[in-house]
């Protein structure tokens, strides 16, 4: 325990070296912190987080800073993305964090938690803010990372957190990662992807594909619904639509989680006003519970292919 004088000095130093906000951050997943992250990510000033833009790099720096503030920054993985439309090539990044497990053996087994941070940019004068797609998942990644880090001592397995670039251009960030993994690919025992988790409906439906790709996945994802006040719609297969596909194609167990489609999907109206932030807190508690159940368990993980 440090003395009072020391701790106030530490506090002053923290104030000087960290952006305001971080030192007040809570370990719990809170509506306010989610809102703060999404307000930044889905702000008009970021022009839709399009790969290759200055604003895209601003998001990368924001994510890196948040990981660094939480003591989990691991790597900035640069890659070249070929854009849909005009086929031009731009530089962008995957932002990676790491939280090591405590079991001498199982810490070599990795669970990846991912979310893409890019979106569609500006088209015909309209800014596509992508509040649900996928500021919601990116904010989720930061909040879950913070809570896992605070509970690191419970972990047996290790956690790799990846904010993917250029997903909207064809899953490019995740494709680059699995082709240039910063850790042995066969150490990854599960990849949990969050893409559009901000529109929980009145029935509290959380949808997921891939729950049958690892042992006990169906039962686990089902059983965590009630304690977290959500109704899981659990599919064994149905692996499609986002970055987890890149991992599944390499023979890795996956779980792709979302709260469903809606009228604002890939429209300029995908704004923070249309999100269900209280609902997203429930979704994140649900995902956190699943992640911790697997990361703190000794149960053997293996890939179970699905049709
Ligand atoms: Zn998306």
UniProtKB/TrEMBL annotation:
GO terms for molecular function: metalloexopeptidase activity. GO terms for biological process: proteolysis. InterPro entries: M28_fam, Peptidase_M28. It holds the Pfam family Peptidase_M28. It comes from the Bacteria. Residues 94-283 form the Peptidase M28 domain. Gene3D superfamilies: Zn peptidases (3.40.630.10). This is Peptidase M28.
